[in-house]
């Protein structure tokens, strides 16, 4: 029970840190009408294809250059709905991961939860527990 709680706490910290780096964020589904989870109350479910957009800059989370190698940076870029701006939230046994639709084996990560910490890709944690 403690391990599961701790894993969810860490994954929530990752989402909060990523949001702080973006100056606040919302999610838009690729095929739906643009909606801001922060203001519309729309829900996000596991496996839903998302585009994560900064509410302050109006730019989207973007896998830089479309490269999926480990430590490739995640940046803000003008929203264009390309595959490098599409992600999905995946519920694991120990928390949530934000997977890149470019390569579902690569997830959004940070090295530490400090102010202005860079967000980057790293291999997803094994979801089998």
CATH class: Mainly Beta
Give helix % range: 10-25%
SSE sequence, one letter per element:
HEHEEEEEEE
Taking pLDDT < 50 over at least 5 consecutive residues as the criterion, the unreliable ranges are 1-25, 28-41
Q: State the major sheet.
A: 8 strands, antiparallel
Radius of gyration, Cα only, in angstroms? 14 Å
Distance between the termini: 13 Å
Mean pLDDT: 74
Strand order of the largest sheet: 1-2-5-6-7-8-4-3
Number of helices: 2
Textual characterization of the structure:
It contains two helices and eight strands; from the N terminus they run H-E-H-E-E-E-E-E-E-E. Strands 1-2-5-6-7-8-4-3 form an eight-stranded antiparallel sheet. The chain is globular, with a radius of gyration of 14 Å. A hairpin with a 2-residue loop joins strand 6 and strand 7. With 129 residues, it is an alpha+beta fold.
Give the gist of this structure.
The protein is α+β, with helices and mostly antiparallel strands.
Q: Which keywords apply here?
A:
single chain, about 130 residues, alpha+beta, Trefoil (Acidic Fibroblast Growth Factor, subunit A), eight-stranded antiparallel sheet, 2 helices, globular
Question: What is the strand and helix layout of this fold?
Answer:
Layout: H1 2-22, E1 25-29, H2 37-40, E2 49-54, E3 60-63, E4 73-77, E5 87-92, E6 95-100, E7 103-110, E8 119-123
Antiparallel strand pairs: 1-2, 2-5, 3-4, 4-8, 5-6, 6-7, 7-8
């Amino acid at each position: 029970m403690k391990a599961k709680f701790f894993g969810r706490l860490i994954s929530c910290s990752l989402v909060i840190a990523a949001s702080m780096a973006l100056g606040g964020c919302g999610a838009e589904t690729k095929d739906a009408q643009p909606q801001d989870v922060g203001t519309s109350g729309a829900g996000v479910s596991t496996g839903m294809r998302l585009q994560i957009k900064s509410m302050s800059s109006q730019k989207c989370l973007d896998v830089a250059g479309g490269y999926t190698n480990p430590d490739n940076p995640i940046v803000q870029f003008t929203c264009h709905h390309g595959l490098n701006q599409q992600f999905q939230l995946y519920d694991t046994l120990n928390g949530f991961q934000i997977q890149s639709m470019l390569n579902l084996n690569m997830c959004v990560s940070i090295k530490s939860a400090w102010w202005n910490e860079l967000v980057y890709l790293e291999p997803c944690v094994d979801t089998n527990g």
